């Protein structure tokens, strides 16, 4: 497989995954805001911080109010992580790899892109937004499912899985980091009713609520939520699971010595940590460390597969 | 829908489907009957279905305007152009003959040059040709084939006879539209595919692969074939990707390839470097190798010509084969066929005046208002003068250019291209068209069943180019025997 093509596939699935996550984050935030009383200081700001987009946002907008943030996250092409940017870049990635992936997936992605571009006003208005975002999430699932069901599980598919799981791992840490910041402080205290729904929203941002309930039979507890999202081996969006998937992909690829070593160190860092203890102090630093190691894993993959040179 | 062929109005030229008396030709009868059975709404519904299918397939070409790069859908007319199989067989044989002779001609030009020594073609024409590559002299490509893929433009004059207008031997494009048009037709007119015996076109990608594999430097081993594209910004990128996908080979850009110290071509893969045997290149000669041609070309591969000359890689088409699509040499094709094959040309050439000949020059300058003047070495209709539609000023400017460089100009009588019914709004109207069949040369020679029909959608226009209001139609070769 061509190095350039492997790279495009990897980024295509990262972009798709990111678009799906952004759609979910907006949906959940909106839902949460309807439930929270006005006096709780919780708005749209945190959704920008999740993608690290604060600087770009304030270059173009003054107030992080609903209208601005929604536009920024869904439709603004200045924001590299906006849904429109992600889908449009995924489409560009596929455009140059159309000879590799099943043609129907290109048709679906093309449809999705046209749909987003042509229905922007629905997305920005309050009434149709939820349905619109759900249909984006559904379309991304269709593409992922189509690829899983029709593409040979070869090296190309490996790079798709690799990108998807790395992006998921990254997004999980980001959501935990930003969403739990104001909740962690309250961990020790009794949970207020509103603390509870905020932890639930963290779970829902990752479609993890139902699976969490099966995993933990007790009421929603902050430390347990964090442990579930970081260390549960079974839940597909938990950090542990994603990293394990990345490892499985790498095991199928050639020249995998260095990336596998990176993975091993990342797994050690994640599993050897007592989340309960960390939640009291140093949790944010721990997440930073995980993210730094993810970045270094990406660089290692980049070097091993995407930049082939004469020896 | 109500169609009155008597009022169809194809007065001054040959119509592919309808006679001058307003009666459908034998091969168009069923189509006509079928169209009449549809309501206007039915037809519009099929038109809408075809637009949707094309959008969803992502069949696009790229144009540039003030806003930057825009992807445009090439208009597709749903009414097929139908050709009787019997008539097609002659055309097919003629195209094979032509391309076989042209390959022998190019091969000769880069080796012994017998045809020049025998003075059948004047030597100065070759030495002065912009597309003659002295770097290719002495190279012996596998099977002696230089033009592996050729797209010839065929037209039909008022007399109903076919003429070859030009042979595109460099990087002819359009075959992907031929394939996609068929897919669309099948989706919207499945019933017609039951009524007619329509010859399939979809084996083109596998024939293309077989052709390329047969000219590999090591034909005994399974060859590594790649399609080399200038990249996603090229207007024909869609086609490059499509063909690579359909052949199951890598679509590479210049930056994916490199030439090693062993003068072999390699591509960069996730397993490291892999050797490449055949490059189907969709890049012009001059951009192929910065070591030999344009020094600042970033599209090509440094050392590619070295690898080719050593016989370590096959380039299709071979560098320098464009020498034979010079429009001055076009006039010599009947003699070229006679010289190499000792046969008479099956297909007609359009009579061509060569301005380097004094008598011809005189005639051309006196009759500029009646002739079509073309530069000898431009593709895509650039720099042409259509005499009857030109202004006095344009003719004067052209006369100056011709006098300055007579070798580079040819002139032909104006040919009124044939027409076929085309859906314009709710009505069928005659529109002018041409045909580009594709000819593959390897161990065997294949001609596509039909080809790409391009149609000028503007009334009375004879310019079929996509950039100037042209569209395309599906082309059906139908077997009418026993009907």
Comma- or semicolon-separated keywords:
heterodimer; A: 311 residues; mainly alpha; 2 domains; B: alpha+beta; Rossmann fold; Dna Ligase, domain 1; five-stranded mixed beta sheet
Strands of the largest sheet of chain B, in order across it?
3-23-22-19-18
Ranges of chain B where pLDDT stays below 50 over 5 or more residues in a row are: none
Work out the number of β strands of chain A: 0
Domain count of chain A: 2
CATH secondary-structure class of the domain at 218-312 in chain B: Alpha Beta
Secondary-structure class of chain B? alpha+beta
Please report the two chains with the greatest interface, counting residues with C-beta closer than 8 angstroms to the partner's C-beta. Answer: A-B, 26 and 26 residues
What portion of residues of chain B belong to β-strands?
A: 15-25%
Give the overall shape of chain B: globular
Q: Provide the residue-averaged pLDDT of chain B.
A: 91
> Mean pLDDT of chain A, rounded to whole units?
88
Number of helices of chain B: 14
Question: What Rg of chain B do the Cα atoms give?
Answer: 23 Å
Order of helices and strands of chain A: HHHHHHHHHHHHHHHH
> β content of chain A, as a range?
under 5%
């Amino acid at each position: 497989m061509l190095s350039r093509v492997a790279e495009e596939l990897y980024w295509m699935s990262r972009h798709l995954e990111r678009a799906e996550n952004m759609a979910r984050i907006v949906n959940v935030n909106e839902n949460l805001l309807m439930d929270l009383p006005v006096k709780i200081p919780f708005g749209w700001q945190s959704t920008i911080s999740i993608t690290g987009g604060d600087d770009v946002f304030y270059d173009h907008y003054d107030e992080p109010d609903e209208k601005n943030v929604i536009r920024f996250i869904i439709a603004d092409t200045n924001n590299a992580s906006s849904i429109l940017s992600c889908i449009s870049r995924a489409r560009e990635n596929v455009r140059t790899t159309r000879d590799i992936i099943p043609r129907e997936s290109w048709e679906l992605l093309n449809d999705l892109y046209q749909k987003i571009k042509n229905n922007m006003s629905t997305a920005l208005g309050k009434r149709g937004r939820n349905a619109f975002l759900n249909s984006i999430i559904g379309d991304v699932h269709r593409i992922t499912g189509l690829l899983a069901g029709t593409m040979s599980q070869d090296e190309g598919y490996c790079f798709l899985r690799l990108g998807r799981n790395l992006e998921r791992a990254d997004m999980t840490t980001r959501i935990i980091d930003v969403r739990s910041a104001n909740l962690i402080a309250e961990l020790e205290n009794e949970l207020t009713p509103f603390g509870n729904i905020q932890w639930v929203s963290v779970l829902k941002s990752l479609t993890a609520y139902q699976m969490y309930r099966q995993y933990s039979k007790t009421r929603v507890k902050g430390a347990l939520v964090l442990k579930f999202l970081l260390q549960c081996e079974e839940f597909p969006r938990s950090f542990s699971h994603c990293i394990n998937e990345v490892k499985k992909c790498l095991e199928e690829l050639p020249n995998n010595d260095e990336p596998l070593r990176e993975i091993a160190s990342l797994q050690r860092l994640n599993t050897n940590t007592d989340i309960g203890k960390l939640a009291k102090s140093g949790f944010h630093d721990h997440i930073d460390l995980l993210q730094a190691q993810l970045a270094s894993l990406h660089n290692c993959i980049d070097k091993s597969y995407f930049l082939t040179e004469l020896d | 829908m109500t169609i009155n062929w008597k009022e169809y109005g194809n007065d001054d030229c040959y119509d592919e489907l309808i006679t001058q008396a307003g009666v459908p030709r034998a091969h168009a009868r069923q189509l006509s009957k079928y169209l009449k059975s549809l309501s206007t709404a039915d037809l519009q519904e099929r038109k809408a279905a075809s637009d949707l299918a094309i959008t969803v397939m992502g069949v696009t070409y790229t144009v540039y305007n003030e806003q930057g790069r825009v992807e445009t859908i090439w208009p597709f007319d749903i009414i097929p152009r139908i050709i009787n199989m019997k008539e097609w067989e002659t055309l097919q044989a003629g195209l094979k003959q032509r391309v076989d002779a042209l390959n022998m001609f190019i091969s000769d030009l880069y080796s012994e040059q017998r045809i020049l020594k025998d003075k059948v073609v004047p030597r100065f024409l070759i030495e002065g040709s912009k597309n003659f590559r002295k770097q290719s002299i002495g190279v012996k490509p596998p099977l002696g084939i230089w033009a592996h893929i050729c797209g010839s433009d065929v037209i039909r004059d008022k007399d109903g006879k076919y003429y070859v207008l030009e042979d595109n031997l460099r990087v002819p494009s359009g075959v992907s539209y031929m394939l996609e048009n068929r897919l669309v037709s099948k989706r919207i007119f499945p019933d017609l595919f039951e009524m007619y015996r329509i010859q399939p076109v979809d084996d083109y990608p596998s024939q293309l692969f077989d052709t390329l594999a047969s000219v590999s430097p090591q034909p005994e081993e399974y060859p590594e074939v790649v399609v080399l594209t200038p990249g996603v910004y090229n207007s024909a990128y869609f086609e490059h990707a499509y063909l690579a996908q359909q052949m199951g080979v890598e679509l590479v850009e210049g930056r994916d390839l490199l030439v090693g110290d062993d003068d072999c071509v390699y591509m960069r893969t996730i397993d490291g470097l892999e050797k490449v045997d055949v490059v189907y290149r969709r890049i012009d000669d001059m951009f192929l190798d910065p070591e030999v041609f344009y020094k600042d070309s970033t599209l090509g591969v440094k050392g590619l010509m070295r690898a080719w000359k050593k016989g370590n890689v096959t380039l299709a088409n071979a560098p320098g084969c464009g020498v034979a699509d010079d429009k001055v040499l076009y006039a010599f094709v009947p003699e070229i066929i006679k010289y190499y094959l000792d046969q008479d040309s099956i297909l007609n050439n359009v009579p061509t005046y060569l301005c380097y000949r004094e008598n011809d020059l005189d005639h051309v300058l006196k009759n500029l208002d009646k002739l079509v003047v073309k530069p000898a070495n431009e593709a895509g209709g650039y720099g042409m003068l259509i005499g009857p539609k030109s202004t006095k000023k344009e003719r004067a400017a052209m006369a100056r250019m011709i006098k300055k460089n007579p070798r580079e100009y040819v002139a032909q009588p104006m040919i009124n291209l044939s027409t076929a019914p085309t859906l314009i709004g709710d009505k069928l109207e005659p529109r002018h068209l041409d045909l580009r069949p594709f000819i593959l040369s390897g161990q065997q020679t294949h001609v596509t069943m039909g080809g790409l029909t391009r149609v000028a959608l503007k009334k009375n226009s004879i310019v079929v180019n996509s950039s100037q209001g042209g569209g395309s139609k599906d082309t059906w070769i139908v077997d009418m025997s026993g009907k």
